[in-house]
Amino acid sequence: MRLTTKGRFAVTAMIDLALRQHAGPVTLAGISERQKISLSYLEQLFGKLRRRQLVSSVRGPGGGYCLAKPLEGVSVAEIIHAVDETLDATNCGGKGNCAEDLRPCMTHELWTSLNEKMFEYLSSVTLADLVAQQRERTGQAAVIHDERPLRRVRRPVEQLAAA
Hints:
This protein is 48% helix and 5% strand. The protein is mostly helical and 163 residues long. The protein has a domain at 5-86 and 126-148: Arc Repressor Mutant, subunit A, CATH 1.10.10.10. It has a two-stranded antiparallel ribbon. It is elongated and about 60 Å long.
């Protein structure tokens, strides 16, 4: 049993996104640089996260990704599942055909129980928990500023005249 880099990177990238989204959409290039994760790998992961409606994308200049749900509404289990990651300690994929006679092996129930406990635990940990933990660990304020330079927004002449 092990959690692959796909699941680890997805959770890490979602924490990074959550820490910075207050300033607008977060670029994958920024996440890639900060977390040392390949940009092309992040593109694959975020495609899956978007399809599972955990993130939304914004196109164009100043575009990037935002969370599609509140921090409290996203569990670690949901993130891992969204990128097609399975956590399974059994040797049979949970089918119960792990012994030579295609019946459950002697430790099948042990590993099945571990799977249930892992899923239960990862379902109980939210992105909000991880963000709070990260802020506490690093001593950062409640809001982290995005490193992108501020963009000037041009207003139509009518808005300037009304101001």
